[in-house]
Amino acid sequence: MFKKVLLLSGSSGAGHVRAAQALERALLNARAASDVRHVDTLDYTTKMFRDLYSKAYINTVDKAPELFGWLYDHFDKPRKNEHLRLALDKLNTRPFVRLLKEYQPEITICTHFLPAEIVSWLKGKERLVCKQAIVVTDFDLHAMWLCDHFEHYFVPLEETQVHLQQLGCPAQKITVSGIPIDPVFGQHKDRVIMRGKHGLEVDKVTILVSAGGFGIGPIDRLIRSLLELRHPAQIVVICGRNQELKASLDSIRAEASHKESISVHLVGYTNEIDEYMAASDLIVGKPGGLTTSEALAKGLVFVVVNPIPGQEERNSDHLLEEGVAIRCNNLPTLAYKVDRLLDDPDRLAVMRDRVRQLARPLAAQTIVNKLLDLKGAHHF
């Protein structure tokens, strides 16, 4: 058992926080620590820095995704520009450094690269004595995840492990765990029962549309494209916290009411996303690391639309290569591509089988168990 565990996330996108929450739950369920604390690192930075990481991130992704993609690629150069970036981070994270020194964790578990970098720097300067585990929350490894002072990496895929090893990380310090998700996504829930519970027709193809935790992206155009489906279907749209988006989709739902074969169901922020996934046949949207891992755990084939240039583009590449997704690059052809998949039940069955092979619903428990094993074997 650990004495003090500090989970460190960052709210630039919802996935890093959800991964830490899943680990927090796994730690508590396993009684793996006397004290577990989860901190959003950005809460302990300057306001300017916090806005840069969170608001600027969302605005850039939504309004200028090509710029975000360029920045992502520009900074994906191992060991290059890290001194400049670290200097900026150190300048703006002094409250976070104070927190670390006051709490004195036995181990930090980072689901975001910012706290991992600061902890690594403090360890290297011998200003902090603790173990550090780093949990990569996308399928591809970006250079900003690289640290010099750590005890263990947890990565989603074997390819990510190979990448880390090629960059000099010892194999024994890497575990292929998958991306940690809430254990609820690993629980079987009957499709028919879930459809009935949430007011859906039990015998109709169900397509889940995920706008992400912040409800950004051209969702209105995407839904209009899906209204052209030949196959009868019900479209469930998870709008997240974006009330403006939910309101704008009401008119599209009214249009769909005139179609006998297509219906649209709008859902705001919900804690029952696993049940909507259990009720669905396909998921359409952006392949963020957490959303993708949750969907895989629920057995869903992914229809990738408008991935963010950068990490989501790379996530998409992995999904396509593994045979668990199709991709639509042009929204006017979305209905055609989905219909084509539904026309071929044998292909869809093969893809679902690949989904089951790739899914890692117990990733959070795997990570906690490995950390306890390492501690017990004195490999820390």
Describe the structure.
47% of the residues lie in helices and 17% in strands. Helix 1 (15-29) crosses helix 17 (363-376). Helix 13 (289-297) links the parallel strand 10 and strand 11 (301-305). The chain is built from 17 helices and twelve strands. The model has no long low-confidence stretch (mean pLDDT 89). It has 380 residues and is α/β, with parallel strands linked by helices. The protein starts with a strand and ends with a helix.
Could you tell me the strand content as a percent range?
15-25%
Structural class: alpha/beta
Question: Main beta sheet, described?
Answer: 6 strands, parallel
Helix content: 40-55%
Query: Could you state the order of secondary-structure elements as H and E?
Result: EHEHHHHHEHEEHEHEHEHEHEHEHEHHH
Tags for this entry?
12 strands; 380 residues
